[in-house]
Queue: 2 jobs
Job 1
Amino acid sequence: MRGKNIFATRWGIIGVGAAIGILAAFLQKLGNPANMGICVACFERDIAGALGLHRAEVVQYLRPEIVGFVLGSFVAAYLAREFRPRVGSAPIVRFVLGAFAMIGALVFLGCPWRAALRLAGGDGNALVGLAGLTFGIWIGTLFLKKGYNLGRSQATHTAVGWVMPLIMLGFLALLLISPQPEGQAKSEFLFYSLKGPGAAHAPLAISLAIGLGIGILAQRSRFCTMGAIRDGLLFGHVHLLSGFISLILFAFLTNLLLGQFHPGFTGQPIAHDQHVWNFAGMTLAGLAFALAGGCPGRQLFLAGEGDGDAAVFVLGMIVGAGFAHNFGLASSPNGIGPHGMAAVAVGLTVCLLIGLTMRNKNA
Amino acid sequence: MTTMVDARGLSCPQPVIMALDEMKKEDNRELVVLVDTDTSKENVSRAATSQGWQVSEVSEEGGGYRITVRKG
């Protein structure tokens, strides 16, 4: 047996949450969008835009933080001898869950990571989003108690586990060889934003370095925002929750120091105040994350340590972002999109059917 | 008697649910839980400790872990 993993202790997870909170707030100071230092869903949506999977001009940037998350986890898993290539636990279902998780998150305008950062920046609407997230995860725990599972994964070829890290390396290569031409929205291979959140970003090297650092820390600590709430509801366990609360607290304190804390419900950056749909969007996202066994960050870290099913979930999220912006499902600061309500209704129906029909196959 | 829980290949939080279900049964005094990731190993060990059980042995087996827990 190998030595004890200090990052997986109570103080370890609290330290990792604190580091993520502080670094996210600093990323905002260094250029990332307000209350969006690190938003996994938003940044994957920006990647979808950079690749032209949607053409929402204000959200196109191949975010290096996401690349860093996967590659950091990949390196950490190898160093700790924890890289375990595995695949085969209902990947098509995980793809669909990823797509609807993204659609729900884009109705709220943020994943659980951004909900935490929005709260830490004073956006009261985040409380509604977090309540919806908790409700969605609670529905997921009901299915888990009834025996819901997506079946077992199987060990597979090492090269299978390398696919997602290699895709991320490819993305990084595109970003390096095809940078944004001054004042233009398209380079040879990638789309960029000239205004809006997609044009707001910290310097590439800093974003990448912080992404790598968080990828390493999160792989070691198993940091998961959805798991934090799920384990509390399901078992009364507060281990992961202490990391999530630490993230919110330290992001809040850093925002105070940097003058980035502005309390209120209206006029918050990249947010709307349609409470019902903030709640419902995050209910859908929370349920989808719970059914898939991890928050969007955790899915990236799992993909980095060889989990091919988590990698499929990530691809589902990126494709879901394409759907969300191509078909008017995503919200904007002006409110929900023209088809946001229908998308949430369809998503919840699909997730409920998945929860109801996939049980005890291999348990 | 030792009860065996095979949680290999299952994602979070199934290994913990399966282990806790067995720990809650009055007759069970010792469990062997098979998992295939370090995360599951840590989660099952932590859950056992929270129930007042003791982790008596963790060994590597077949690319995963064999965790033996006993009622404290």
Job 2
Amino acid sequence: MLAPILLVLMVFFVTLPLWVRSVPVQYNARSLLVRKVTTLVTALGIALVVFVFAGSLMLREGINRVLTAAGRADTVVILRKGSDAELSSAIGNEYIGLFRGPAQVSQAGGVIGEIVIVVTADRADGFGASNVLVRGMPPDGFAFRPELKLASGRMPRPGTNEAIVGRGISGRFKGIAPGQSFELRRNRPLQIVGEFTADGSSYESEVWGDLDVIRRSLGREAVVSSVRVRLNRPEDFDAYRQTIENDKRFSMKVMREADYYQKQSQALSTFLGGMGLAAAILFSLAAMIGAAITMNGAVAHRTREIGTLRALGFSRRSILLSFLTEATVLSLAGGVIGVIAVQLLSLVKVPIINFQTFSEIVLRFQVAPGVLAWSLWFSGLMGLLGGLFPAIRASRVSPVEAMRA
Amino acid sequence: MSENQMTEATKTAGAPGEPYRGTTTGTESIVTLSKITKTFFRGSEPIRVLEGLDLDVPNGSFEALMGPSGSGKSTLLNIIAGLDRPTSGAVRVAGADLGPMSDSELARWRSQTIGFVFQSFNLIPVLTAAQNVELPLLLTSLSRADRARHVATAMRIVSLEDRMHHYPRQLSGGQEQRVAIARAIVNDPKIIVADEPTGDLDRKSADDVLTLMERLNKELKKTIFMVTHDPAAAERAGVVRKLDKGALQ
């Protein structure tokens, strides 16, 4: 809804000089430079708002990146019907082989069953405890995910209590770092022997160990949480889903892996994005008021100049456009400062609880061209709205009254 | 303002400061005011500034309007210039009836017909002299190169071609007023209205400005209508009119 409005506004402004004889832009630019302090304070206020706005968009990008990067189009996730997440799903071992049957399944290591649990661990910095997601996978589970790269240490040996940890949470919890160990249950330790990366996805916030060892530790040898199936082609999904979901021997839900993670990211993304957006909107009201005060001051200070321009023949529309341009330029300058400053956030890691798994995932603020473009649009819009009333006021200045001022 | 006009002006200009009586020999009126009244309101109390005023200003004349403060001089000037509207009466300037014009039509008309010279110069402080002079030309369809030529010509006429890129704060009062005059003539207006053009100047600068206005009237045939308190300035005009209590004497 907002995009078409912004597009119309952009076309309006780009074409305005064609039908309105405008006051030279140098007039506005130099008028801003003459009032250095006021201009700077207003621009910094807008920069702060754009920083918050862009930060919230970058966080949303970060969530989408982390949670959806883990999903592949040619892979499906099978959960027990009624479950929304791996954590709440349980599938008997006897079904795993049945999922391999349909012709759409890739025969090269195409099916893995995994168990997913959450353990509570103390934070390494001593500030309380949080949940960590532990994934137990069969020996071919590592090969199933080619994005996995060992960053340090070595791969765990099958059938042992060795595990590897994602780089996102490595070292953030006591015992969860290469060379350390933590307990799944009392006297059931997992020994971390390596650290891995997975294209920045949410896997980097997990601990991966041996399926059977982890199940045995929990006394759940007969079930897995989910089954992942690699299809021959992404287009095979519908046929495969129909086959599995219509099979009367079991009651399963089949999702594309990408959709599964998309759905997982939605709640978190909406929540955090909404919080950020709400903060940005509140801040933007203050910034718009700031811009309006600045531009009102400018109008009051330059009444005689406006009167002169009107006397020389510049129309009300020209004056309106001139002051709107000035407010927009001022705001865009603040926007550019904000967009530059917000780049620093990409260096920050943010631990957040995933609502679906109740475990901690580590996000990064993600820079994207769309985020920057939206942020600049937002700053321009603030300038337009904040400058609108002062510009209308300027356009209504009577040249006769202005000369007496 | 064409190059030819500028050359002609340069050739025939008198020496600066030389007395000049102006011209009063226009054959037709460029300004015709009929039964003009103007009433302002202070709260609910009406204040009648102009009372059924008639005025004919011949084309090509240089006229001065004098009168005590509050006599309605500036109001009359503003009505002639299309900046203000009378409460009643008809205003015809340079062949146009200003009464029915909308605000935007009046603005366009002003940009093509009127050159303004103000007491306080009213230059835009953040623009250079050349940019100030160029302002009226931005309302025309002239190319950038043509605008630059016109600006250079106007600045030569006011003998400030070496101050083109100076800002107003870098100029003396007299120079600022000459830049304002260059701005007033750059789009070749039919009539120049001047509101106390020497009011903020010392005697020497005022003489220079008045001499320049005489040249514009005599050599470029510009009609000049000047409001002034200064008898010495009025003396340079061809016709001096006196306004008192809203009526011409």
